[in-house]
Each structure stands twice: as structure tokens, then as C-alpha cells.
């Protein structure tokens, strides 16, 4: 009998608990990326404009929105304050 994707993933997580932590970090990074991007679009800001008003470099914003990096709470705070918004992440 073939296993489903979720069954295979559960087997991998059982064999390597660190994988569970990495999966959670990646999901959180993607969720933050989506929310930062959506907030910026809702505010009709370019990445360049957001960089200017937040003090976060445009390059950093690119990496955050692509979920390539885990942004610090300080950076997320700067971005959300500059856009008068908020981000909600459940772990």
C-alpha cells in the first residue's frame, strides 16, 4: 500500500525531530512573507517606498517577501509600523 504525502512526512518527522522544527520555521517564514506582501499591496506601496519610510533596506524587504530569510521581530515591527498595520502568526 502506498503512503500519502502526509503519512510520509509524519514518518520523516518521527525519525528526525529537527525536521519538525525546520518545517515550523519555514511555514512561519512563508506566513510572514505573505502578510508583509499583502499589507504592502493593500497600502499601495512599492518595496522602494516601504524601504524609505520603514528604514529597512529594499533588499531586505525583497528577501522577507520571498520567504528567503527569517526576519527579526525588530524588522517586522519597523515594517508594520511604517504601514500602520499588523501581522499575526500562529505557531
Count of strand segments = 0
Query: What's the pLDDT, averaged over the residues?
Result: 90
Counting DSSP H or I runs of 4 or more residues, the number of helices is 5
Give the overall silhouette.
Answer: elongated
Order of helices and strands: HHHHH
The separation of the N and C termini measures 33 Å
Helix coverage percent = 55-70%
Largest sheet: none
Q: Beta-strand percentage? A: under 5%
Structural class: mainly alpha
Radius of gyration: 16 Å
* Low-confidence segments: none
Descriptive report:
The structure is a single chain. The protein is mostly helical and 91 residues long. 69% of the residues lie in helices and 0% in strands. The radius of gyration is 16 Å and the shape is elongated. The chain starts with a helix and ends in a 9-residue tail after the last helix. The mean pLDDT is 90.
Amino acid at each position: 500500500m502506498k503512503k500519502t504525502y502526509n503519512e510520509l512526512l509524519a514518518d520523516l518527522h518521527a525519525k528526525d525531530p529537527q525536521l519538525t522544527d525546520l518545517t515550523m520555521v519555514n511555514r512561519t517564514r512563508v506566513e510572514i512573507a505573505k502578510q508583509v506582501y499583502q499589507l504592502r499591496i493593500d497600502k499601495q506601496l512599492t518595496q522602494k517606498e516601504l524601504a524609505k519610510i520603514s528604514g529597512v533596506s529594499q533588499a531586505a524587504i525583497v528577501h522577507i517577501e520571498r520567504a528567503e530569510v527569517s526576519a527579526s521581530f525588530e524588522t517586522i515591527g519597523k515594517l508594520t509600523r511604517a504601514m500602520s498595520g499588523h501581522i499575526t502568526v500562529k505557531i
